[in-house]
Structure formats: C-alpha cells, structure tokens
Design a protein that fits this description.
The protein is α/β, with parallel strands linked by helices. It has 8 helices and 10 strands. The strands form 3 sheets. It has a 5-stranded parallel beta sheet with strand order 4-3-5-6-7, sandwiched between helices. The longest helix has 62 residues. It is rod-shaped and about 185 Å long.
Length: 304
Amino acid sequence: IINGYINVYKKGGTYTLFFFIVTVAGEGNLALAFQLLKDKLLKEGLFDPAHKKSIPFFPHRIGIVTSPTGAALQDILKIITSRNNLVDITVFPVQVQGEGASEDIARTIDMIGKEPEFKNIDTIILGRGGGSAEDLWAFNEEILARAVYNCPIPIISAVGHEIDFTISDFVADKRAETPTAAAEMAVPDIGEIKLNIEKYRQDLFSGLNAKIRTDSLMMESCMQDIKNNMARRLADYSHQIETMRLLLEENNPESVLKKGYSMVTDMSGKVISSVKEIKMNEKYVLSMKDGRIIFTISNTEVEN
C-alpha cells in the first residue's frame, strides 16, 4: 500500500509517482507480523524445548479447545473414541477466527489450567481445521502464545493442515500436522496395546519354556556329574578300604600264626618279644595256629 500522489507532465504525456509511506499488504503484511512475533518470543525462550512437557502415554481425561461446529472437532472425537474408549473427553467451545478469537482461546486455556474442576485433565488438544492465513491468525497472536506457554497442562497444537505453521505450534508442548494426527498422538490405540500385550505374553511364555528346558538340561547334566563324582569317590573309598583290610590282614597275629609262626605272651596277654623279658619259673603262653601251650621257663640263652 503506497501513500503519495501522482504528477502528470502534459507536454511529454508522462506520469510521475511520488510516495511517502509504503506498507506490505495482505498476506505479506501478515507474514511480516508473524516473523516479528516469532523472533520476539524465540528470544524470550517461549520455544525452548527444555520448557516443553511430555504428553502422557495413557491419559484419563482429554480437553479439546476448538470450535464446536467445526469439522476438526468431529475428526478428533472420532479418532479418540475409535482408538480408546476408556478416556474421558471434555470439549471447550471457543471462537477460532475473527476479532476476539485469540482472547477467547487464551481465556479458556487459562481457565482450564487454574480451575480445580479441570485439574484431572491430562492433555489439551488446541486446534482447528484449515483455512487462509487470515482465518488462522488467531493462533498467531501473542496473548494466545503466552497462555499456551503458561498452561501447566501439556498442550498439543493442531492448527490447519500439514503445511500450516502458527505461533501456537512453536509454543505448544507438541505440534501435530492435523487435528486427526493430534488425536492419534493424544491417546494410545487400545487394540494395538492388546495385541502387544498378547505378543509379550507369548514371548514371555516361550521364554519361560525355553528357560525351563535349559535349566532341566543343566540339572540333568549336573545330576549326572554328581552321580559320576560319587561313583568315583565310592570306588576310591572301596579301594582304600580293601587296601586297609589287606594291610590289617597281613598284620593280624592270627594270620602270622597260620603261616607256622608262634607267639609268646605272659599270662596277662602281654607279648614277649625279648629273652630279657623272661622271668625264671614263671608261666608263659605259647600261641600257635591251633591252640596254646602253657609252660614255665627253666633256662634262657641270649644270642650275642
């Protein structure tokens, strides 16, 4: 838009344009305002990833902030109810375009974040369907950006179509390309969860069976090792016992007597192993293999 005047040079048939003010009109003007606000909020840290909250995996209650008559609401409701019939849904109707729309949306978000009756809302879906830059402009206003930033509840921004970007998208905790994508992002698919649980159950069952088989084989191997070890020990002990038996047998006086030897003891059973232990005229016992002889010593000879 140019503000100025035109001067006509009649003789030459030429026109000269003199202007004082030039401003960008239409979408160009909106694009400039969008970039200026985006740069401002970026410097203030409203887009900082560190400030963004995680979207709950399994929410109990979803808040939807959008037009009550728009197709976006029906798309969101359809997707949420088809994926998860366990979540509660609360719709907060707002004006999504035109004068006062950004203020209406900002007030609603502030109310949801502050009122005790909405404290159990886990996630907010903020959005609307597609439209022109002017139609979507309410989501590019600073008042709404700050309301989204200050909200204690995680917000998914889903404004317009995939190619549309608004200031709310940058400030929100998560940006969805479309309202339908926001609904899919907000709640898990119960059917898919059930399939995953069944898969995990089967995997666990298979794993346990494999573990039991492996442990059984290990137990059998261990028991066989124990049996083999015990057999070896029993064989060693039997060999030792037999060796000791033979040694005892060889050293048994009765065995010696059977070989033709005899043994001299006094009457108390003490073995006499030296002539020097003999006392004259006392009785002694001569043990042989088939009996005993009791005798009295009358004389001894000592070998030199």
